[in-house]
Design goal:
The protein is of the alpha+beta class. The chain is 34% helix and 22% strand. The strands form seven sheets. Strands 4-3-2-1-5-6 form a six-stranded mixed sheet, sandwiched between helices. A six-stranded mixed sheet has the order 12-11-10-8-13-14. Strands 15, 16, 17 and 18 form a four-stranded antiparallel sheet that branches.
Length: 592
């Protein structure tokens, strides 16, 4: 079916259920970022392939909301559909709930698959819908009715994440969680987030792309711990979990289990718990809401994780550096297509110790790189030329870490404007790298250190400056982040042990995209009468293309940082390279 046929089928299903509108979100039952095919409902319906967005369908209209990362991409992919684009965040653009409230008559009925909307977002929708007394049904999965060949629900396997990688046992983590539960005043804690469950119970899995996890729920009390999962996923892991006091129940048992819960209170994260689950909690229970207890613990990496992270990054960046060498040489000898580069990069990565999978991959040439989350399609992607910029954003999943590094690679001749944009991006990244700040600062406080370089030059990038990074888990890990306008739930202090990315950029539609991304670790610097001061330690080392650097735009301090960084890069990566690669790396990291 084409888009029009899909919308017609959906409207027929809506009419059957007496619905006036239906909302299709980019989500599963766990607010997972990277979705398996089963949950790609919005993509299937619209043809828009971005990783975020939402559609509202009425009987005579359909609109898709996308954020600034996807304006260009969404416009292109919706061209042959009847779905109109709403550019989230721009002045005058209504929210989805505002648009629906204005479009529908009083007492109209809106349908949503209640598994796919968070309790938090649902409360926002309901507040707006009250203005027209709109009714909402959460029990309808209409996409399954019209998507006749919908892929099967994921059936991957879980495997042990050994304590030599995790640094703490399941029992130790459960004790930490229970101590936090006491402080929150909660008897019970329900966890929906897949990466938090994997972290707590020291396993990883193969259900979700880009993140090694399995579909499950967890529930913890002061005396018991439960895992709701299909047992076929556990295999040999089951006996180890039971030995550590974790009771196994089937995935679908979570709803009836909640409905029969006899505790006095329960803690949930409303941003990750579905509205369907929230409605299953008995009214007799006091519900405490807040950010995941496990997320705050998980975000502060322990000493074992930090040590492993650094070793993991050294190996991964050596593979990336080898790829950079290859592509710079190959573009002059053979025809290269963007879509082929992921496989080539991953070929270097697969040889690395403790490798699991890739975590993230973008290869975008020139104008395509202006789309921040561009995804090349084989046979349709751009051919590289020995000129301009190639942006490669890539990372891997390993037992001992998750990596995420971006380099903008010079393939040939550059204009002065391109060099300026590259150097401004570099300045932005360096300024945040050198930050020293008083403990208690939020990521939003630090964002200006990088972004001010762009603002001073009349530019901006429509994304955060950095995001939290998981450990053999989600490449975009909450709660830490560095952005100037975070949601209230993302407003968190930068704590010792937090690992975040540092990735400002320049994105000029029709021209090029530039991003330089490193990973930084928050550490204590010193303490005096004014308090404890913090700083960032860079843990990713990969050459920054000197052919695009305009020295005149760098301060003496910034130039010293770059030269010191490159010296450390050679020292870190050269042990993983042969003589030819070392000679190339020496030239790429020379002092300027």
């Amino acid at each position: 079916m084409n888009c029009s046929e899909k919308l017609a089928a959906l409207r027929a299903a809506m009419k059957k259920e007496s619905l006036d509108a239906y909302i299709v979100l980019t989500s599963d039952a766990h607010a997972t970022e990277y979705l398996p095919d089963y949950w790609q409902c919005r993509m299937w319906l619209s043809g828009f392939t971005g990783s975020a967005g939402a559609i509202a369908v009425t009987m005579d209209d359909a609109q898709l909301w996308a954020d600034g990362r996807y304006y260009i991409q969404a416009e292109k992919e919706l061209q042959d559909s009847t779905i109109k684009l709403q550019k989230m965040g721009l002045d005058g653009v209504p929210t989805l709930q505002e648009w629906l409230t204005n479009a529908l008559k009083e007492n109209a009925t809106v349908g949503i698959d209640g598994r796919t909307i968070s309790a938090d977002l649902y409360s926002v929708y309901k507040k707006e819908f009250k203005k027209k007394k709109l009714n909402v049904r959460l029990d309808l999965d209409l996409i399954s009715e019209v998507w006749k060949d919908r892929p099967a629900f994921p059936n991957g396997k879980a495997f042990e994440h050994d304590i030599k990688f995790a640094g703490k046992s399941r029992r130790e983590k459960l004790q930490e969680v229970r101590e936090k539960m006491k402080k929150e005043g909660a008897d019970t804690y329900l966890i929906s987030s897949l990466d938090d469950i994997a972290w707590l119970y020291n396993f990883r899995g193969t259900d979700t792309p880009k993140m090694p996890a399995i579909y499950s729920y967890a529930l913890v009390t002061q005396t018991e711990a439960f895992l709701f999962v299909e047992e076929s996923k556990l295999e040999d892991l089951k006996s180890k979990l039971i030995e550590d006091g974790i009771q196994i129940k089937s995935y679908d048992e979570v709803l009836p289990f909640l409905k029969s819960c006899k505790e006095d209170s329960i803690f949930i994260d409303p941003t990750g718990t579905s509205a369907r689950l929230l409605e299953a909690i008995p009214e007799s229970l006091t519900v405490f809401e807040g950010p995941e207890i496990t997320s705050a613990l998980k975000a502060r990496k322990n000493s074992v994780e930090i040590k492993n992270f650094k070793l993991c990054y050294a190996r991964d960046c050596s593979a990336f550096a080898k790829f950079i060498k290859w592509v710079k040489e190959a573009v002059h000898k053979e025809t290269l297509e963007e879509a082929d580069l992921h496989e080539k990069m991953n070929g270097y990565r697969k040889e690395i110790e403790n490798y699991l999978d890739d975590s993230f991959s973008i290869a975008a040439y020139m104008a395509n790189a202006a789309q921040m989350h561009y995804s090349p399609v084989k046979g349709q992607s751009a051919k590289l030329k020995p000129e301009g910029f190639l942006l490669v954003d890539t990372g891997g999943q390993y037992y001992d870490g998750t990596t995420d590094v971006t380099r903008t690679i010079v393939l040939g001749e550059l204009s002065q404007e391109m060099k300026k944009d590259f150097t401004l991006t570099l300045k932005s990244m360096i300024r945040l790298s050198m930050a020293k700040f008083l403990y208690g600062a939020y990521g939003s406080s630090l964002d200006i250190l990088a972004r001010s370089v762009m603002w001073e030059n009349g530019m901006d990038y429509k994304s955060g400056t950095g995001h939290g990074l998981g450990y053999a888990l989600n490449v975009h890990e909450s709660p830490p982040g560095i952005r100037y306008n975070p949601a209230p739930s993302a407003l968190v202090k930068i704590e010792e042990g937090m690992v975040v990315t540092n990735e400002p950029g320049v994105y000029k539609e029709g021209k090029w995209g530039i991003r330089t991304e490193n990973t930084i670790l928050a550490v204590k610097d010193f303490t005096n009468t004014d308090g404890t001061f913090m700083k960032f330690e860079t843990i990713s080392f990969c050459p920054i293309d000197l052919k695009a650097v305009d020295k005149s735009l760098l301060s003496t301090e910034e130039l010293k940082w770059l030269n010191d960084y490159h010296a450390k890069t050679y020292e870190t990566l050269s042990p993983f390279m042969n003589d030819e690669e070392k000679a190339w790396l020496k030239e790429e990291t020379k002092a300027i």
